[in-house]
Specification:
single chain, 101 residues, mainly alpha, 1 helix
Length: 101
């Protein structure tokens, strides 16, 4: 192989290495930006806690509340008002969650 062919391979290898490094730096900077955004969101402060125990009626203002990851707000919308036509489907001994539709 000629010297010119080897030079081309060396240059191509250097370009590929530089491109790979640029991609790695971009990924790291994206991760850093994402972490900063998440940290900024986590820095928010709770202004008030309101529980709507009965859907469609007023709220209860709470001074404190224990929240669990993945769980609903405690006792929020535990009760609802039924329309007359929905009474036939309701079993008071085995109440079930009904989606708002």
């Amino acid at each position: 192989m000629t010297a010119r062919g080897r030079d081309w391979r060396v240059v191509a290898g250097a370009l590929l290495a530089a491109a790979g490094a640029a991609v790695a730096v971009e990924r790291l900077s994206r991760r850093a930006r994402r972490r900063r955004r998440l940290a900024a969101r986590c820095d928010a402060r709770v202004q008030a806690l309101h529980r709507f125990a009965v859907k469609g009626l007023g709220f209860d203002a709470l001074r404190e509340c224990r929240l669990e990851r993945g769980a609903c707000f405690p006792n929020d919308r535990s009760w609802a008002l039924l329309r007359r036509e929905e009474l036939a489907c309701f079993d008071p001994h085995r109440p079930q969650w009904v989606h708002n539709s």
